[in-house]
Specification:
single chain; 112 residues; alpha+beta; Alpha-Beta Plaits; 4 helices
């Protein structure tokens, strides 16, 4: 599986709005994208406005498909001017769970 870890620094006056619109993107990703196996939104407790996204997809092309979805397009058009610096993205390959393990977990992603 293909994974990404993204670091985002959000303007402090946009935090509440950022969290709300990001939740919509995460839910749409896990609910509507069969090739999205994880979409975590994490908040740094020590650095106000810093967030991390951990996402797992079938492959890099699945991430490209994600970027074409309505929920991502809505998210990006809303938040793109709210960052205090460029986004940092790390590309990774998963080791555990196995690909079959990720696929088996997919139905459980919808229990928010």
């Amino acid at each position: 599986m293909y994974a990404i870890f993204v670091t985002l620094n959000v303007q402090l006056d946009k935090i509440e709005e950022f969290e709300e619109v990001s939740l919509g993107d995460a839910q749409g990703s896990t609910r509507d994208e069969p090739e999205c196996f994880r979409f975590d939104i994490l908040k740094d407790p020590a650095i106000p406005g810093r967030y991390y996204l951990y996402e797992v997809y079938l492959n890099a092309e699945s991430l490209d498909k994600h970027r074409e979805t309505p929920h991502f397009q809505k998210w990006w058009s809303t938040v793109e001017d709210w960052f205090t610096e460029d986004l940092a993205k790390i590309d990774m390959e998963t080791v555990f769970p196995s690909n079959e393990g990720w696929e088996a977990q997919k139905p459980h992603l919808l229990n928010w």
